[in-house]
Amino acid sequence: MNKLDPSRDFAFYAEISARLADARVQEKVEHERLARLMGLWDRNSIYTLPARLPALPAKLASSSLIEARALERRVDLRLARTNLESSPRRSVLRTQPGTSTL
Known about the structure:
Elements (H helix, E strand, L loop, with lengths): L3 H34 L25 H11 L1 H21 L7
């Protein structure tokens, strides 16, 4: 063991410590970015990510089925559908004799 070995060990440890600190800062930055993208503005909002993604399905669905599922699950389309379905009920309520219009 020569005199340079402890210095090299110290430099290596310092570099690894700095990289770890940078990685922890980057993790917090990305966590905040993801929270903003999900619309979580409260700093007390806690969410956890799974350690792994779910396994891929053995057989992929057809592209037309995937598109149909995506359209069924879109929140904006669900809201529009609900508004459209409820609008005839609202117009019936407004046009009945003896009811006041809002």
